[in-house]
Design brief:
Elements: H1 2-10, H2 13-17, E1 41-43, H3 45-49, H4 54-63, H5 65-71, H6 80-91, H7 94-107, H8 111-127, E2 135-139, E3 147-149, E4 153-157, H9 174-177, H10 185-195, H11 209-226, H12 232-236, H13 240-248, H14 250-259, H15 268-274, H16 292-307, H17 313-318, H18 322-329
Parallel strand pairs: 1-2, 2-4
Antiparallel strand pairs: 3-4
Helix pairs in contact: 10-11, 11-16, 11-18, 16-18
Length: 336
């Protein structure tokens, strides 16, 4: 009987959100007027299409070892010769130049990305003044990879982010393709920075769903502070309607997580249902987007920050205890 009642309740998932008082707001906008950053940005897409021999390709990769080893995954090939032959054949294929032209159409000479990274890195220097700003490289790869992020270098595979109007798109599900648009590049890079242990301390012995929820929640919170007026939907990768409905139905989602004893579960099955990549979280409702527990983790971190206004961003990110963050957030979503 309780299960039937629950199904009836969550069946109103989308309808309940209609006419809600949800409103997107900017996060705190720091005063960065005195902060200057120089974004070192190197556009390599033209260089790749100008290669005329395998020797030139070898020389190119010798100058860009991180691109070779981490973006194009040299170790995945049995030998250097196999690697160079495969990449040379790809780069000299006629379709590859068409891909370069598509990247130029969408990104131009990279000024849009430069402006976005500059804004984000000025905020990064405000919160973490001691950190070095990473260099940026842009490239087209034939859908080898989308982003590689380290403490000193960010590599952007532009062809992944050409958007719905592109002639060529990566081979993935439609719901995932929605996150591969021009305006997702910098937020996605910031999320990868925010999940990194350099910023985001976690208790590695804690294998619970809650620990993953809070770790992802801190990453979303971090990224939002770097680009405070970018919509939440861009960071979480939901549509605007999905984001509004998730916010409005937090009480239903939370009830499901609590009733099914998900929070302190260490089950891989529970993580697959509520944390991992899926088009929908059917356990909550037919229209509930995937990864819904990470969204709730974000709301918990927001509440933790709001209830503890004396904490800096660095202190929030450095708190390893998911249980402490949940407890001190006093997160209790109300029925709307």
């Amino acid at each position: 009987m309780m299960r039937l009642v629950w199904v009836i309740v969550v069946g109103s998932w989308v309808l309940a959100g209609c006419g809600s008082d949800y409103e997107e707001r900017c996060a705190n906008i720091p005063n960065t007027g005195s902060i200057t950053v120089e974004v070192a940005m190197e556009n390599l897409e033209d260089s790749i299409t100008r290669l005329r021999s395998k020797d030139e390709l070898v020389a190119f990769f010798s100058r860009h070892e991180a691109l070779r080893d981490y973006f194009f995954s040299r170790e995945a090939y049995p030998s250097d010769s196999v690697f160079i032959n495969a990449l040379y054949n790809r780069f000299t294929h006629p379709a590859f130049d068409s891909l370069r032209l598509e990247a130029k159409r969408v990104f131009g000479e990279g000024e849009y990305l430069r402006q976005q990274f500059t804004e984000a890195f000025r905020n990064l220097k405000y919160y973490y003044p001691e950190l070095q700003v990473p260099r940026i490289q842009t490239v087209i790869s034939g859908f080898e990879a989308d982003l590689v992020v380290s403490d000193t270098l960010i590599i952007v595979g532009l062809d992944y982010f050409l958007g719905a109007g592109a002639r060529y798109r990566p081979n993935m599900y439609e719901y995932m393709l929605a996150r591969y648009e021009k305006n997702f590049v910098v937020p996605s890079a910031l999320l990868l920075m925010g999940i990194d242990t350099r910023y985001n301390r976690t208790d590695l012995k804690d294998r619970t769903v809650l620990a993953d929820m809070i770790a992802y929640g801190k990453a979303y919170y971090f990224a939002k502070q770097m680009m405070p007026c970018v919509p939440d939907s861009v960071f979480i990768g939901y549509s605007a309607n999905e984001t509004e409905d998730a916010w409005f139905n937090q009480d239903l989602i939370w009830k499901k997580l609590v009733d099914d004893e998900v929070l302190f579960s260490t089950s891989n099955q529970a993580k697959q249902k509520y944390i991992s990549e899926r088009p929908k979280t059917l356990e909550v409702g037919a229209n509930c987007p995937g990864r819904i527990a990470t969204y709730i983790g974000w709301q918990i971190v927001k509440e933790y920050a709001r209830k503890n206004p004396s904490l800096t961003l660095q202190q929030i990110m450095a708190e390893p205890s998911a249980e402490k963050i949940l407890r001190e957030s006093r997160y209790r979503p109300v029925e709307r």
